[in-house]
Amino acid sequence: MAAKDKPLIPVNVISGPLGVGKTTMINHLLANRPQGERWAVLVNEYGLVGLDAALMEAKTEPGHPPGVEIREVAGGCICCSAGLMFQVSLVLLLQRRPDRLLIEPTGLAALSGVLDTLDRPGIREAVDVRSIICLLNPSTFTEDIRREQVADQVEAADVLLASKSDLATEHTRAQFSEWSKGLFPPKHFVGPVKEGRIAPGLLDLVTGRKSSAPRRGDRHGTDHHDHTHEEQDARSEPAQSPVTCDESHPMVELSHPSSVASTAGWICWAGLEFDAKLISEWLDELASSVGVLRIKAVFHTNEGWWSFNFVEGTEDLRPSGYRRDSRLEIIFDGPPSPIAKGIGAGLRACLRPGSEETASSCSL
């Protein structure tokens, strides 16, 4: 793919379970990249709505340093159901010759397929796969690593970071430290990270690999990865079509079922205004429902634009620079939860007067 006289493009893969802080860390890296460098990000989301890329875009709006290109592959894992779109997006980004490429797979993806793609003829000649980073929450890692995909991420990683360690107890931090010492082969670096503030040098801790990055080989892409081919085919195509909303069609639902994890997602026209108090209380109630793994959202409210992130019983609420539309995505453990059927009505109930009339007068 690359001419022999062209330098290889540094590539970092940043992995970890749902809600562990991957996007926060990438935003920190983008904001602190070397002056004059052009970086690219390829982000994968399991659901169809695409919130991570939307929230990353806030870092490259007017008033922020230029030089970041973000591409999104949504609607499945780039290690399987969205693998073709991953390869296409990867090639397009590499052709633009960024100074560095960051890849963020969904927390439900195994890394084996990602690494296999980076090692394919025509791609491996263009890239220098540097530090592969995995984030784990010390408070939940014993449960997380029971998942085949997370175990795969840990095995492939060169750098293992304890995310949100400041919120963990001394006992769980010690437990995490003791467990990490027993990993074989040992990691190049194990340490804590707070608010995504990773030391830039860790990106290049591994460089000039003489062999392929570790992976679980032929177990990837089989039934061990849990997704059936029927599920992959059903959701991989529509995920790539951009969705737009307007006054005549203000709310669109994008959801898909799976035996492993299901999503319920909504995109709402930017002209709809939500009541900040009502939407926060409603999301908090949803987050406490049985079977909800993760809630991500960005809403246009009467108090401005806000992003919401609910995971593992904690809420992260902050102002958002995103302005295109309001978005909500809920990930359920296993098949769709019965509460998913009431999400549309719940959203309408949180609208401000006037906006409610617009939404209710249009069919979804």
Overview of the structural elements:
This protein has 364 residues and is an alpha/beta fold. Residues 57-61 and 217-241 have low confidence and may be disordered. It folds into two domains: 9-225, Rossmann fold (3-Layer(aba) Sandwich); 248-360, Hypothetical Protein Yjia, Chain: A,domain 2 (2-Layer Sandwich). The strands form two sheets. The protein has a seven-stranded parallel sheet with strand order 3-2-4-1-5-6-7, sandwiched between helices. Strands 8-9-13-10-11-12 form a six-stranded antiparallel sheet, with helices on one face. The protein is globular and about 60 Å long. The protein has helices at residues 22-31, 52-57, 83-95, 112-118, 141-144, 148-156, 170-181, 229-236, 276-287, 343-349, 355-360; strands at residues 9-15, 39-45, 68-74, 100-104, 127-136, 159-163, 189-193, 251-256, 261-269, 292-301, 304-311, 314-319, 325-333. The longest helix is centred in the N-terminal third of the chain and has 13 residues, at 83-95.
* Shape estimate: globular
Radius of gyration: 20 Å
> How far is it from the N-terminal to the C-terminal residue, by CA?
44 Å
| CATH H-level superfamily of the largest domain | P-loop containing nucleotide triphosphate hydrolases
Task: Map the helices and strands.
Elements: E1 9-15, H1 22-31, E2 39-45, H2 52-57, E3 68-74, H3 83-95, E4 100-104, H4 112-118, E5 127-136, H5 141-144, H6 148-156, E6 159-163, H7 170-181, E7 189-193, H8 229-236, E8 251-256, E9 261-269, H9 276-287, E10 292-301, E11 304-311, E12 314-319, E13 325-333, H10 343-349, H11 355-360
Parallel strand pairs: 1-4, 1-5, 2-3, 2-4, 5-6, 6-7
Antiparallel strand pairs: 8-9, 9-13, 10-11, 10-13, 11-12
